[in-house]
């Protein structure tokens, strides 16, 4: 179902600058067991940014296909864009 066979990583773009790592972990944690989450720029960034990007690695690649269904879901003030992302092994 995902665009990259076997990947367990998704990239979420078009995130509000107000979003936190905890909010992302809560939202996407309902779809599968989150192994790792990285939010850029991080929560404690000293400079303001207009948007953020998040990478989430699930324990199971099947969660990627499910997570893609959140594309176009409005979260805070923006429609999320969720795409599979190649893993760097």
From TrEMBL:
Gene3D superfamilies: 3.30.70.330. It comes from Coregonus suidteri. InterPro entries: Nucleotide-bd_a/b_plait_sf, RBD_domain_sf, RRM_dom. Residues 12-75 form the RRM domain. Pfam families: RRM_1. GO terms for cellular component: nucleoplasm. SUPFAM superfamilies: RNA-binding domain, RBD (SSF54928). It comes from the Eukaryota. GO terms for molecular function: RNA binding. The lineage of its organism: Eukaryota, Metazoa, Chordata, Craniata, Vertebrata. This is RRM domain-containing protein.
């Amino acid at each position: 179902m995902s665009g990259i066979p076997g990947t367990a990583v998704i990239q979420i773009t078009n995130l509000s600058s107000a979003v936190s790592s905890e909010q992302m972990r809560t939202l996407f944690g309902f779809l599968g067991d989150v192994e790792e989450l990285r939010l850029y720029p991080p929560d404690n960034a000293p400079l303001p940014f207009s948007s953020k990007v998040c990478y989430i690695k699930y324990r199971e690649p099947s969660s990627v296909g499910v997570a893609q269904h959140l594309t176009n879901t409005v979260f805070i003030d923006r429609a999320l864009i969720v795409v599979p992302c190649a893993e760097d092994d």
